[in-house]
UniProtKB/TrEMBL annotation:
<dbReference type="Pfam" id="PF00654">
    <property type="entry name" value="Voltage_CLC"/>
</dbReference>
<feature type="transmembrane region" description="Helical">
    <location>
        <begin position="202"/>
        <end position="222"/>
    </location>
</feature>
<keyword id="KW-0869">Chloride channel</keyword>
<feature type="transmembrane region" description="Helical">
    <location>
        <begin position="30"/>
        <end position="57"/>
    </location>
</feature>
<feature type="transmembrane region" description="Helical">
    <location>
        <begin position="405"/>
        <end position="426"/>
    </location>
</feature>
<keyword id="KW-1133">Transmembrane helix</keyword>
<dbReference type="InterPro" id="IPR046342">
    <property type="entry name" value="CBS_dom_sf"/>
</dbReference>
<keyword id="KW-0407">Ion channel</keyword>
<feature type="transmembrane region" description="Helical">
    <location>
        <begin position="344"/>
        <end position="365"/>
    </location>
</feature>
<keyword id="KW-0812">Transmembrane</keyword>
<feature type="transmembrane region" description="Helical">
    <location>
        <begin position="318"/>
        <end position="338"/>
    </location>
</feature>
<dbReference type="InterPro" id="IPR001807">
    <property type="entry name" value="ClC"/>
</dbReference>
<keyword id="KW-0813">Transport</keyword>
<feature type="transmembrane region" description="Helical">
    <location>
        <begin position="77"/>
        <end position="97"/>
    </location>
</feature>
<dbReference type="GO" id="GO:0034707">
    <property type="term" value="C:chloride channel complex"/>
</dbReference>
<keyword id="KW-0406">Ion transport</keyword>
<dbReference type="Pfam" id="PF00571">
    <property type="entry name" value="CBS"/>
</dbReference>
Amino acid sequence: MTALLDHLRTHKTPSRWLAALRALVRTDSLWLIVLAAITGILAGLAVSLITFTTLLAHNMLAPGYKRLSGLEHVAPWRALLVPATGGLLLGLWHYALQRHNRHRPVDPIEANALHGGRMSLRDSLIVTGQTILSNGCGISLGLEAGFSQIGSAFGSRIGRNLRMHRADVRLLVGCGAAGAIGSAFDAPLAGAFYAFELIIGSYAFPLLAPVACASLCALAVVHLTGETLPAITMTIPQDVPPLAYPLLAVLGGISALIGVTLMKSAAYAEQVFATCVRPVWLRPMVGGLLVGGLAILSPTVLSSGHIAMRAGLVNPPLFWAAIGLLLLKAAASTLSIGSGFRGGLFFASLYLGVLTGAAFASVVTPIMDISLALCTVAGMCALATAIIGGPLTMILLTLETTHSANLTAAVALTALVASFTVKRIFGYSFATWRFHLRGENIRSGVDVGWMRTLTVGRMMRTQLDLLDASTTVANARTIFAGRMPRYIVLHDGYNHYAGLLESNLIQSIAIAPDQPLAAIVDNDGEVLSPDYSIGHAVAAFERTARPALAVTDKDGRILGILSERYVLRRYAEELERTRRELAGEKHGK
């Protein structure tokens, strides 16, 4: 599909055909749903292909057995050799990319928050390939990072090739992520709300149709290709005792603490690897050896842990077994991330949550007769919410995975407590925490990129009324006789900024005519840089309480002038545009 769109845009196809298609999409939301469905189909095909390729690679660790976390035993030499070899290949791949000065790939959340949905399909294919290599050699991370990356990239590419509005491109990025996650977990509602909560950053009723359509189309493709697992069969309690809810709230709080600890540990592991293993290309190999050593103790730490999670739901382990597996899986995932492997913690967080719930049930059962299945399901939802974010997404994913609709209230309680606790004591999900470590202040996929692209250099007025700072008041009155500008920019003999003067000062009878303009202007050196965003400009006006400020380069040469009134008007216009997009008003028909 993307190749066809490239052909329509760059080859001999008349440009009016592409313009007509673009006009249809912009004026009729039905065509936007069609594009969302196409994006979902591409995402579903990608999920099927990635899953098939990865499971094929798993035969290196366990010939004839594709789901590694369900193994009871793995040959020690394979457990050490395969992850280490995969890590070496990944490290050399990273090294080759760095030598070619490849920029850092943009993920779907960052693309929607800062770049208007713009993603590189080539970079996304690289990320997906690295994710397949990481998971294929048994590293303790999930494939969801590759799923959502490539699905979102398809949506972005379609929107960009059709030169669609910024809001439409962002929506298609969300549709790609919804299709990828919904089909990967066999949970279409969870996939849709994953897009709303994490990728798009808000929910609006007019956006539901395209996002849900993409999720359902992707799921249909995955089912047709047969890359799905059978439904989980487990004994679910028919009701929840009222006294169990306080204990479930405690479980939510404990899950939040474990999630925060895991996220901080991953960042700390990166620092340790950077300090102890200097060559960047060697770090994944060392990490692979360490993860392989843990796999000798328990193969459940291998790969995403999806099968181990399902086994834990059906037959939950006892307290000490649950604690041991929890520590091993958390250590393996932390080492995998810290050493530079590609992948996510989505699948891993579900398994860790099951183990947390099983251990919690073993502790509280002597106090109160509470269902073990209830604790494992609630723990799965709570810990996933703490690490990934998106409580509604995780509630729906848990209910769709376990078919336990009668536990909705209990699951929702643990998810909300976990989400609230993480926000109070930490403030980030795993994805946004990694943005924070890179210096990006992004909390969701809500579009804030306009604040960075709308710079002072784009807003400033370059037609200026300039005077030398040594000019007298009388000469200034003569120069501007019959046309008095509002602001006069003063400069010295080298065209360096010397002050900003309001014209009403030189008209005042209290000012002596022979005074130089430099004597009546208050120049404290407060100026704007053309690289400042609109947010920086608003902050500068609030700090100085001035109606206008000059814009200069780093050497102090005058470039323009910017007024507070104009900045606030543009700021209000952009906020209103963002509000309309968040409310889905642009897409309503």
